[in-house]
Specification:
By secondary structure, the protein is α/β, with parallel strands linked by helices. Helices cover 36% and strands 18% of the residues. It contains 10 helices and 10 strands. Helix 4 crosses helix 5. It comes from Lolium multiflorum.
Length: 299
């Protein structure tokens, strides 16, 4: 009798531990599109490593400019060549992978000059990449799942208006528009902070790299201080953003070896109800390092 009771107790404990281990199970998000030689979009999603793929970038828009997509050598949007990506986007979505378009980036010509400008950009994004209609959809008929704000230049004004307008267009059009942002880890973010404070963002993948003062190698206290500030924002899930490789081309600082991430870093943050997982820059570097495969079962 005692043996059976002990066995039942052990089983209950095991089930509880399994539940706790999965209740904050995370996802991996990856940026794709800015490097020659990375796997195709379809192969990226077929790997099974990622729940989110972020197409990078739309680096030109706003202030009266004609928006322009840039997916490096993957395709030429000026000739309509990127419409061929529609099939791959649909393939990703059929596998349950969310595909978002990242606007901005570290280099580019973008910004918003007024609430009206934000409204025009929102309408362009809705009609050309989301649930609206246009004769010039750069990625063809595929309907993306949302828009990622990787705002690193161009001023901090009116991004909140853009976020509000995008969500409103989705609601009115009967299509959920996911919003994500990729702020730097110093809090609050110089560019994205105002938009994130609207409470409209579903995912925030914080760049804990190229920011020496708050990345993990600055010390546990500095890292956790930044992380705790970010999980306090009114957003859905918060992701730990990292370079996928130790290559200085991936990031100047902030790389965390896979074994260190899984044994020392993730245990510190997975207890947060807002923990969402890990974001990686980028597919090109992940192809060469195998980083996502090394961490996936721990995220």
């Amino acid at each position: 009798m005692a043996s059976r009771a002990f066995t039942a107790f052990s089983l209950a404990v095991s089930l509880l531990l399994a539940l706790l281990a999965t209740c904050h199970a995370g996802s991996i998000a990856i940026y794709w599109g800015q490097n020659d030689g990375e796997a195709s979009l379809a192969k990226t999603c077929a790997s099974g490593n990622y729940e989110f793929v972020i197409l990078a970038f739309l680096p030109k828009f706003g202030k009266g400019q004609t928006p322009q997509l840039d997916l490096a050598s993957h395709c030429d949007p000026s000739s309509g060549g990127c419409r061929s990506q529609s099939k791959d986007i649909n393939s990703c979505q059929n596998r349950g992978v969310k595909v978002l378009l990242s606007i901005g980036g570290a280099d580019g010509s973008y910004g918003l000059s007024s609430p009206g400008d934000a409204s025009q950009v929102a309408m362009y994004l809705w009609n050309n990449f989301l649930g609206g209609t246009s004769s010039s959809r750069p990625l063809g008929d595929a309907i993306l799942d949302g828009i990622d704000f990787d705002i690193e230049i161009g001023g901090a004004k009116f991004w909140n208006n853009l976020a509000t307008d995008l969500k409103k267009l989705g609601k009115n059009g009967g299509k959920t528009v996911l919003l994500s942002a990729a702020p730097q880890c110093p809090f609050p973010d110089e560019w994205d902070g105002g938009a994130i404070s609207t409470g409209l963002f579903d995912y925030v993948w914080v760049q804990f790299y190229n920011n020496q003062e708050c990345q993990f190698d600055a010390g546990r206290a500095a890292f956790m201080d930044a992380w705790n500030k970010w999980v306090s924002v009114p957003a859905g899930k918060i992701f730990l953003g990292l370079p996928a490789s130790s290559s200085k081309d991936a990031a100047g600082t902030g790389f965390i070896p896979a074994d260190e991430l899984t044994s020392r870093v993730l245990p510190l943050i997975k207890g947060s109800p807002k923990y969402g997982g890990v974001m990686l820059w980028s597919k090109y570097y992940d192809d060469r390092s195998g980083y996502s495969s090394a961490i996936k079962s721990y995220v």
